Amino acid sequence: MRVTGTGHASMRIDTPAGSILCDPWVNPAYFASWFPFPDNSQLDWDTLGDVDYLYVSHLHRDHFDAAHLKRYVSKKATVLLPAFPTSEMEDELRELGFTHFLKAPNEEVVELDGGLKVMIQALTSPTDGPIGDSSLWVEYDGVRLLNQNDARPTDLSLFAELGHVHAHMLQFSGAIWYPMVYELPQAAKTAFGKQKRDRQFDRTWRYIDDLKADHVFPIAGPPCFLDDALWQFNDIHGDEGNIFPDQSVFLSEYAKVGGTNAVVLLPGSVAEVTTETCETSHPVPVEEFFANKVAHLEEMRERKRPIIEAEKASWRHPEIDVLKEMQRRIEPLLDESIYIAKGVGGPVRFDLVGYDGESVESIVVDFPGKQVRPYADEKVRYRFRTERALIEHLLHIGEVDWVNSLFLSCRFSAARIGQYNEFVYSFFKCLSEERLQYSEGWYDEHERAVDAEDITIGDWVVQRRCPHLKADLSRFGVVEGDQLTCQLHGWRFDLSSGRCLTSVGHKIRAHRVDEQAPAPAGESLT
User: Fold this and answer.
1) Residue 111: is it exposed, middle or buried by C-beta count within 10 angstroms (0-12/13-18/19+)?
2) Which secondary-structure segment (H or E) carries 313?
3) Which of 101, 123, 133, 148 is the most exposed place for a label (fewest CB within 10 A)?
């Protein structure tokens, strides 16, 4: 099995039975804030895109590059389609000209022509990517590969049961806006960033240990930030709180925990994987490339500057009345929202900075009141500040996912009172009838689900599944004193009260080993 690195989470997998191109991303994403690093725009994409199969793991735009897919990927390719809850991915790919689809049953091995086998695991929580994320398992002639990319399954046992894996590709770096955009003192921002960076690596080590593959490939990050306004987000400034470590940092951190089987893929690197070996060739020496990272970034910044400026010139739409258009699009969804609106629990404020860089229009999305209105000097628990032009553009193009556009762009600042609230971001990625109805149904189902199984961790008996996204706490749960941390997503719980310390809601069931379990509500112990 030959694996060619094509940048970020993208790779081309070649076997005698066929070729698969995964997640090709080249063009800037999220309001021209993210670029692939190392740069992959100069690869021979005409050749790379001439494949038998296309696999797109999810709709995040650093994985789903519509312009690149339309121009460079053969429309004769069969799309390996994850079993997502909505038809959005298939609909978008059909609009780009793809007509051949293999709708893979979730978590079932499918044998393709020539003995090539694949299995796709689709994750379908509203917080998994833009309504869905996935992993791809591939086997040919006894060689097995798992492309986990960004996906965060609760465990990898499903893949391990299919046989020993020889190549494991997974994310290790950040792909979020926290904590950089929050209006915090720099010391606090650094501390939170370091905590997140450490959690990212801890989660990666746990996945690697779960699968025990022969070779580990760090992929799916980090992006680079070439706009002058975002340059500080690149991990080149000696900031221990930077959440975007690169592959060279991965190698260093992995070595600290005993890792010796890492393989880095630069764009153009080729790894020949067998059941016994992995021989890799690179276009330039990996160590030398990352030693010159700053120079590479500076060269990219100058080369890509015209692309960024052209994008910026397209964002302004002064003809749009932002308040009226937000009312028209958002208020009907507020009327239909039950679980998400209750989870948000209050108004969310948007401060829109005008073209002059000074004037501000403040608009409130009032979840309890089910309306969008001008800000009325009330206290809000969540506030976002961004350029008016960005919101104009989102409304102009009918964007249904502001997470997969505005928030991932990092072109905003945020402030909040109290805990993180996942429902805020769930709502703003569900600005369509289809997405909202699916998410409401998902929350309804999980609200009513009862996790009856308990496990013991240290001095505590706790429910086995994390209340957040059902991670197995026998594997991801760590107890320190009276607090439990689920290392899959870093959520923390106070075990004495059951209260979630990371977000609103999500109470956990727990009691000390030497104490009797409390009676369920409405019952008494006899």
Assistant:
1) exposed
2) helix 293-313
3) 101
